[in-house]
Automatic annotation (TrEMBL), chains A, B, C, D:
Taxonomic source organism: Pseudonocardia hierapolitana
Keyword terms, alphabetized: Hydrolase, Manganese, Metal-binding
InterPro entries (UniProt xref): Amidohydrolase (IPR017439), Bact_exopeptidase_dim_dom (IPR036264), Peptidase_M20 (IPR002933), Peptidase_M20_dimer (IPR011650)
UniProt entry tagged with the keyword Amino-acid biosynthesis: no
Domain Peptidase M20 dimerisation as annotated: residue spans: 193-289
Needed co-factor(s): Mn(2+)
GO terms of biological process kind: diaminopimelate biosynthetic process
Coiled coil: none
Cofactor note: The Mn(2+) ion enhances activity.
Entries under Gene3D superfamilies matching the protein: 3.30.70.360, Zn peptidases
Protein name per its UniProtKB record: Hippurate hydrolase
Amino acid sequence: MLTSGLDDRIPDLELLYRDLHEHPELSFQEERTASVLAARLAAAGLEVTTGVGKTGVVGVLRNGEGPTVLLRADMDALPVQEIEKVPYRSRATGVDPDGVSTPVMHACGHDTHMTALIGAVEQLVANRDAWSGTVLAVLQPAEEVGSGAQAMLDDGFLDRFGPFDVALGQHITSAPSTHLYLCPGVFMAAADSLRVTVYGRGGHGSAPHTTVDPVVLAASIVMRLQTIVAREVAPNEVAVVTVAAIHAGRKENVIPASAELKLNVRTFDPDVRERVLAAITRIVDAEAEAAGAPRPPEIAPINGFPLLRNDVATTEAVRAAFTEAFGAGHVHETTPKTGSEDFGLFAEAAGVPSVFWNFGGFDPALYPDDPAHPHAAVASGRAPGGHSPEFVPTAVAPTLRRAVEALLTAAAIWLVR
Amino acid sequence: MLTSGLDDRIPDLELLYRDLHEHPELSFQEERTASVLAARLAAAGLEVTTGVGKTGVVGVLRNGEGPTVLLRADMDALPVQEIEKVPYRSRATGVDPDGVSTPVMHACGHDTHMTALIGAVEQLVANRDAWSGTVLAVLQPAEEVGSGAQAMLDDGFLDRFGPFDVALGQHITSAPSTHLYLCPGVFMAAADSLRVTVYGRGGHGSAPHTTVDPVVLAASIVMRLQTIVAREVAPNEVAVVTVAAIHAGRKENVIPASAELKLNVRTFDPDVRERVLAAITRIVDAEAEAAGAPRPPEIAPINGFPLLRNDVATTEAVRAAFTEAFGAGHVHETTPKTGSEDFGLFAEAAGVPSVFWNFGGFDPALYPDDPAHPHAAVASGRAPGGHSPEFVPTAVAPTLRRAVEALLTAAAIWLVR
Amino acid sequence: MLTSGLDDRIPDLELLYRDLHEHPELSFQEERTASVLAARLAAAGLEVTTGVGKTGVVGVLRNGEGPTVLLRADMDALPVQEIEKVPYRSRATGVDPDGVSTPVMHACGHDTHMTALIGAVEQLVANRDAWSGTVLAVLQPAEEVGSGAQAMLDDGFLDRFGPFDVALGQHITSAPSTHLYLCPGVFMAAADSLRVTVYGRGGHGSAPHTTVDPVVLAASIVMRLQTIVAREVAPNEVAVVTVAAIHAGRKENVIPASAELKLNVRTFDPDVRERVLAAITRIVDAEAEAAGAPRPPEIAPINGFPLLRNDVATTEAVRAAFTEAFGAGHVHETTPKTGSEDFGLFAEAAGVPSVFWNFGGFDPALYPDDPAHPHAAVASGRAPGGHSPEFVPTAVAPTLRRAVEALLTAAAIWLVR
Amino acid sequence: MLTSGLDDRIPDLELLYRDLHEHPELSFQEERTASVLAARLAAAGLEVTTGVGKTGVVGVLRNGEGPTVLLRADMDALPVQEIEKVPYRSRATGVDPDGVSTPVMHACGHDTHMTALIGAVEQLVANRDAWSGTVLAVLQPAEEVGSGAQAMLDDGFLDRFGPFDVALGQHITSAPSTHLYLCPGVFMAAADSLRVTVYGRGGHGSAPHTTVDPVVLAASIVMRLQTIVAREVAPNEVAVVTVAAIHAGRKENVIPASAELKLNVRTFDPDVRERVLAAITRIVDAEAEAAGAPRPPEIAPINGFPLLRNDVATTEAVRAAFTEAFGAGHVHETTPKTGSEDFGLFAEAAGVPSVFWNFGGFDPALYPDDPAHPHAAVASGRAPGGHSPEFVPTAVAPTLRRAVEALLTAAAIWLVR
């Protein structure tokens, strides 16, 4: 059994998890993280390569004839200040691409992904006689900016480590621990991030008539952008237009000369995507004209994620394996999510199927005396979401155990005959 | 004549101006500036005290019996990046009160004020036989944040350097060089700067429904604030409500948990001021409710300026002296300005009259071949205003000469019998 | 065959259609329409009752033993001015519930529904030997305001004409003629219409500061309402919030004392419906506070439609019959629509299944030389939608033929053994 | 004395006032009003001409040699529903230029102007021996739409009734009864009324993506227009941009194809006027582009008022006469008002001076037990303003008396030697 001995391994995995949680690093800056994980893979006996796609790590575990299974976890954290009061909470800071210092937190749970992958690999090493084939342990950087998978591919990933037969990955979600969630077909949205810079004319705060106020222009754009999803996208189509950042001005009595917005767009359909992006351009340009702006706005892409599609037949095979292993009550079909992922690029580049699933990480029963605790809301689907400063799993041990089991159970479809 | 020998002094004053322009410093950080000016005053033979109100400088020039005249210039610059292409343009940077590094520029012309004050003092020293009395040369820090005059007063200014009989000050403006502008009575507005923090609930950019979006809330507030001046203030009353800064969010796919606005309010009438401040509170609070904000907003003062009132009779005396010295064609009555000044606090504290006037600093004739140059617009009143990255005087020598002459001519009312 | 002789009947049905199209009537005012149809049903030999639910008509066609099938068409038109240039275009006017005169048009295609129902009944009469059972021909008033079905039920419909075994209905759509569209389960949205009245304080247009401007308040509400769908509803949930009417003020220099909005809300899920309605109330109330309104707003329901659910098994039976009759290429599965219908109330009240489907009414091939004609866009799904002043079917004869065939084919499931 | 016997005349004038108040008529529809007044003038012995400028009335009172003084009152009322609870309140209705029925009210106090003019004429007739010269009693229609004075001039007024030496007029205001208010120079604003029609694409309320929503477009324009006064007009310049009417849509589930706004602009300076009108056009056009409107908006003038300027020397003469007659405590200098008037056109056309003043019409002392009564606020300048449904004078007798006295006192400057 691939899971033999897992019980005894959980305490150690929980320590690894706490260490990773306490030391988060921003995208493409996962130096310490990569070093810790590479050492761990090497200690387990894998051939380890670091620096793949800047900070990525690949471990190869060969165990005789058979298919090659790629297991992938992502390593980067987010510029978020943790507010959950666990003893191992992050106090880390980092420097973002704009050169600004920022608190950093594993607010998207990549620490659980990495820990589960290490756990699965160590189980595979410990139970070599239970399987045959090859496992590629891929620790990808920079998932949050949609660039890490492509960076590893651009760094010769396929030539250096391929080919492989299937790619498997997973992501924690705001759901009860030990439960798994699968979605055949389109699972996660295409994402486009844009930087919009609008130009006014600066001046003294007391003399607005000598200026073109970029703050009012930016605010008007934000209000107008709401109409795209509300009025221009068909009600049964899915689109999200988020203005996640807005920045203009410094001093309270100096009207600035420009303002910057960061937009994030999510869509499931290429036509809707085109329509939304065109509407953004139309609105931004026209609002600048309404303001009498002296220069047209600039709209530049920051990054982008492709659609993530699960291969339907392979998803069904994984679902069957999960159901047999964990019972139908713990395996759920889920709907497409507006979140995004670059995991799919590995299998797309190799022309093989891939499956990506969610595992729950919260336990409302842990808060019997505090129904107001945000995590107590998980049963009603209102627990803190990814990227929230409160996104810290509660049921750590059962969460990690099930995540390791899920990777092993799915991989066994190919590795155990 | 107090102005004897001024012609020969202008080239040296222009060098001082260029040096000050090239080395601007933020409020209460005027270390180098204070050091340069203190040395200059000491070299001229004044008793010099530094560190008055943190970085302020006071020079005392005694010349026999007679009234004491306070001449004041302000020293601080602004967090603005200079774009005018003069060879002595600023490349300086500073660190603002939030700890953020920023370009710095004399975008409000305080460099001309300081240079003119040094020039006037040096003329008074050079022409000691032409006058009698005492001159207080006050180089004030932190005018831009409305705190420098109060800081000097709080540091015992009156006890240490008072009493005095009149306070005189001046400010450059976007008008033709050699022209002077006076306004009896209320001259500059009361200013209130506020920091507004609104709270939402953060989350992933793809899941707006799990959040309360503070960017949309802030944008809605900005749009709604426009209605105060447009609808709630009587058309013939004066009010300005500027949102000079807006900041929220960092990463393009993380909806932030809060947003911050910096507001600047200008009024000439205490009732209008109360009405405008109450409307701001009403709108900010209600917009937070409209957003379903989990916490009420916070509205905190950043700083404030009092009304600046010129003593009417003293202003008439100065006007008469200017008219006799420069001709009626160069002396103009001007209307109250929405800009603000803390100059008035010195005279208010001492219970004596004060006069503050504007002098022009631009020459459209310098751009005969470039009517599109922003400075070419000065004749039509559309030159770059104070706090603009283009606010650099063109006619430097005539501007400085007239500013020195104006100080000497006004001071002579008390010093020359 | 129920369709025997249909070819010869089409020209006469087209005349009936043109007559109905030329004489549209508003909801609950369908006097002429009811009279024309009642006469036609009587001429065909049915027992006819008029005035059911004010202007509704019920015809009973008994033909031996067997199930009772309810066939329903709706009769009312809309306050829209027709701009399509067919010779039989409407020049009718009516008086709306507010007492205002308005142009009237069959902009939702109820004229095709009525004509098809008459055609089907006349076919059943003409082919009595091909079926047995009872047909209830229900011509319902006031579908557009969601009140007609309930009015007929409140008028004793079930006691007077029931029971029945199944209810069948259909609606024209912007799709190619001869094609049919079915959706098992939830097919059409719940709709809630609300009247929002906001109060300001009126006054002279030149003195806004003496007023509370309800126009600005209403505009701010409209902009803020956009955020409900854009930010508060999950991206994969369906909701529509439309402000279909806004009215305030009369004279250009009198600021009015109030403003009125008419809202229309569409949802597929009761939780989403509650959330959206709560958000509307929250936003309207808070915006009134932001305006300093002297009185709170009033939010009153205008009307409402329930969800329309097609019985899944019955829908499959209809689909099978359609596919056999018209070929799989002409029968499509469609997705839930945000439009609304009160058709479902008949079957709900009777506790029997019902099915409602769409039939296409446009033919892009009719505009080979005019690709810019709005109807030429039907292939791309961008033809004029219902309630548009251009919503007039192009392929009248094939459209009517297929609509009659569809009713007969579906009814035959119960009537032909 | 021109005022001899005025005491006895007041009760009759109050009856006339109540009659006029109870029977208000819209602009250019002043048929009954003109008839009542013409009869009254004829009974007093004047030569009366009716139908001057459609419904205007001119009475000529000749009394020997001497100057000709034009006294003018305006006759029209407003489409406002009266809510003040006086027994003689208006229940009248009228039909506005759009053909819509509307309540009508003398909400701008023209009834007091007419009554005072009749009173003054009757006093002049009764005291013929106290003066000599000619009086033109001008009862002008359609002041509210800025068209009545021009219509009378276009109807040959100068040729038929001129020349004259001075034009005098007055307007009630929200101030204490018996007080008079004068303003030399520019007294009232230029007014421009505009009709803005924006075009979208109509459709079903449930399918916003098939439409271009003109309601959202109109709301966005309203919000954006607020920035003109708030940001583009210098704080010490005067401008008002009012959206007094907004209309779109009829049925709650039909998205309309267009929306209409009525704008009213007030300015005191031609440059500001140009700037504001240009900004309106810029914003309306750009917002339509932001909406993706299928047709550009239309902006059409409704009407316009010129600036009203009081001749400075003549105003001083009237002020001196008022001060002598009523005491300095009852004569006040007032500031320019943003309201508008076409009175000035008569004197402009004739090339003679004119003076227009305000008289108070309210008495807060009448509400000793009801400090919450809106009229009780007159002392603080917050009584209901003109065009409000509550604008009904409280102190009728003293108000009328002072208004008659004011006309006679001013006219006596020319008529009594």
